[in-house]
Specification:
Blueprint lengths: L1 H17 L13 H5 L26 E4 L2 E13 L2 E4 L3 E15 L7 E10 L15 E4 L1 H4 L8 H20 L4 E4 L2 E5 L10 H4 L1 E2 L4 E5 L3 E5 L6 E8 L3 E6 L2 E3 L15 E8 L2 E6 L2 E3 L4 E6 L13 E6 L2 E3 L4 E5 L2 E7 L2 E3 L15 E5 L3 E3 L8 E3 L3 E7 L2 E3 L3 E14 L2 E2 L3 E6 L2 E4 L2 E3 L2 H6 L1 E5 L13 E4 L2 E11 L1 E2 L1 E4 L2 E10 L6 E8 L2 E4 L2 E15 L2 E4 L2 E8 L10 E4 L2 E3 L2 E2 L2 E2 L4 E4 L2 E6 L2 E3 L2 E4 L2 E6 L2 E4 L5 E4 L7 E3 L2 E4 L10 E3 L8 E3 L2 E2 L1
Parallel strand pairs: 1-3, 2-4, 3-4, 4-5, 6-7, 7-10, 8-11, 9-12, 10-13, 11-14, 12-15, 13-16, 14-17, 15-18, 16-19, 17-20, 18-21, 19-22, 20-23, 21-24, 22-27, 23-28, 24-29, 27-29, 29-31, 29-32, 30-33, 31-34, 32-35, 33-36, 34-36, 35-38, 36-39, 37-40, 38-40, 39-41, 39-42, 40-42, 41-43, 42-44, ...
Antiparallel strand pairs: 25-26, 47-48
Length: 676
Amino acid sequence: MKRLSRLFTLNFLLLILLISCQKEEIEDSFDESVLENISETNSIVRSTTVCRFTLAGLQPNASIGLSCILDLKDETLNLPPNVKIKYLGGSFINGTINVSGGEIDSRLMTSTARLTGTYTLTHQEDVVDDTPSTNNEGRVFDPNAEGIIQGVVSDAVARENKKILQEFIDKAARENVTVVSINAIDAYFKTDDPSGRITAENMAITLPSNFKLKMGENTHLRMQPNNYKKTALISITNGNTDVTIEGGNLYGDRDKHNYSGGGTHEWGHIIRIKGASDVLIKGVRFEQATGDALHISELYHAFDSRHIESSNIRIVDNSFLRSRRINLTIVSGNNVTIENNTFVDGGIDTRYSKGTAPRANINLEPHREWNNGIVGGTLREYQKVHHIYIRNNTQIGRGDFYASHGDGPIVIEGNKMEATISFSVANGVRIANNTFEASDAEAANGNAITAGVAYATEHPLVFDNEVYGNTITGYHTGINTGGQNTKIYENYIEGYNGIVLSSGRGIGLHNTTISNNTIKVTKYGISARKSLDKVYITNNTIESESGPLVLSGINIDAGQSNQKLYVKNNVLRGKRNGSVYGFEKNNISNSNGIVLEQNNINGGFEINGSNKLDIINNKIYSEKTHGIRFISKTTTNSKIKDNDITINGSQYSRIQCIKEDVNLNSSVAFTNNSCN
């Protein structure tokens, strides 16, 4: 009651003070302390009453409050120096206020009023910057005052909502207002084109250059449900630059979309950045995109003289939830930083809609083609992705971080993951210092890291890639690698399988180093197959309950007889019994061209039908298995020399240092091996 009494008293004083129907002047300000004790916006109802006075008689240094709608009648109100006008529920409409060093409460401004001169905007909840602006920088979009109909509405109303907001933004831009703030709102916006002639980015709520859209935690902008394949809620395009979107909650129409028209409907985006630069997306919550929550691309193809790339994009402190295809996609972009975001369940199925390929959280997917399909010939690049930095994000649930194509640097670093990070036809990739803790789905049948292209061991676009410093726990496979030119080092892996070389449909791995990794697994430490050439497995420490090193079907096809896999200076430990390792065996089967040298091996080796093996200067200790055992099929053209083999067979008296279950070809030479 005390607060209401003060408000009544103040309005009464203002009514007496401000009425100037004839020539009366406003002499002085009321007591500022009374105004300061009045509660903030949430306790003041916006007035619908038109003022019955003007402010023509204001004196310099006056401090007043406005509790009604002041219609400027398309004229300019020139305020004297240092006037302060406070918000008491009122507003300015239809005109210009020219300020001379005064203060204006931002809540007084509407879409039909503008400020000029030198002034300070007050009421910090509505102003974007931490300090008051001294330029024409802020305007507040009041949905009720502007005519927005909130809640579930018809298509016609949703289209009018979009028109109202777009006109407000456009008018602010024309008047050099650089910040528009939206606070409490929950409304639908229809942004599709029934004719199909206007592109999605131009039908969206488009933001101009030199502009910031500031939203609060109670700002909810929603895509009106539709049946169109290509839509966007908000866009930054047409070469626009220096644009910020900060805060708020943005929604696609995924679970209410009409998919009956056929096709994937994968191009429904929440924010589309297409041919724009110097863009910041910060603190936004994205939910339920029909396609991608945030989609970054170009205007015109890279080889077109009209090409405008998207560049200098920062995506920070956002949350991305349950997009139907991908939470964040870059099909064309240069110098894009994705940092401190949370990504949840990209591409997941929901109760009302199935996800669609590739079902990811982040994907780099530029389109480029080799002329006539000849790899290494003439490359036609429609889109380019390069200088990408994905740092310190949190990924929850399903959905990979995937660089399907791209040119480096592509840095994926310091992220906390529950799914997979992978790259394919890319160069300059760094997957570094990430922490992986598998979700239930990934633990059952997933890789933490997939490195390289599976279908080619010689590819001109795949080189200079590194995977290092990652901590991986709980996955079915820690690292799966294929292709060429990758360094994998200093990773820590606990789980089912450690590192797999050329698995599944892959054809092999060339020119790759795997070194200084620590692997503790229940199945295989390092396993490899198919075409391996100039591959070096060195200085790793592997503990396995089944097989520290398992090599099968390596270099056995035509043209591979001179290829080499080198396994040197590793610690290979079989199943642990208390503090002793020496049980489970390593295995080489049906393979060609393997050098096994200077390893410290606990658990013995089993060799089946291989060729061109050099087993040299290893230290082998075994308690349960033979030191080196040849089984099933004969081995040829191999050297077994200078190995130090120790057998502790107190429980297994039949085990031997070297055991031949088959007659070996005379081309297998045993030289200077010791048996203890």
